[in-house]
Every structure is written in C-alpha cells, then in structure tokens.
Amino acid sequence: MAKCEVCGKGVTFGIRVSHSHRRSNRAWKPNVKRVKVVLNGKPTHMNVCTRCLRSGKVERAL
C-alpha cells in the first residue's frame, strides 16, 4: 500500500467488532493519490495524501 511521501501517513491496523462482539482484524487505508507536483522547481510524481493536497503542503504541477 502506498504511503504519503510528505507526511508519512500509512496504513493503520485495528480490530473490527461485530454486533455479536466477534473480533477480526481490519485496516484503515489513507486516501493517497499519485499526483504531479513541483519539487525544487521541477515537476515530478509523488504519492501524496489528500489532506496534504488540501492544506497546500505541496504545489501541484499543471
């Protein structure tokens, strides 16, 4: 699974609990997009989570 190259956000694991309280493993996956960004004045592809895109931590290339 992809990880955000800006903030390092990745998969988080936990336990799913059913109505009858049976427990099984589950994973929360971050919303990571492969986008073209401007890095050091040059456009390049990065895996960035939507939180970093929305907050303006990276500048998207046109």
- For the record, the count of structural domains works out to 1
Largest sheet: 2 strands, antiparallel
Portion of residues within helices: under 10%
Q: Which residues form runs of ≥5 with pLDDT under 50?
A: none
Can you describe this structure?
The structure is a single chain. With 62 residues, the protein is mainly beta. It has one domain (12-55). 10% of the residues lie in helices and 45% in strands. It has 1 helix and 4 strands, in the order ββββα. It has one helix at residues 50-55; strands at residues 12-17, 23-28, 32-39, 42-49. A hairpin with a 2-residue loop joins strand 3 and strand 4. The radius of gyration is 16 Å and the shape is rod-shaped.
Helix-strand blueprint:
Layout lengths: L11 E6 L5 E6 L3 E8 L2 E8 H6 L7
Give me some keywords for this one.
mainly beta; 1 helix; 62 residues; single chain; two-stranded antiparallel ribbon; two-stranded antiparallel sheet
Compact summary:
The chain is mostly beta strands and 62 residues long. The chain has one helix and four strands.
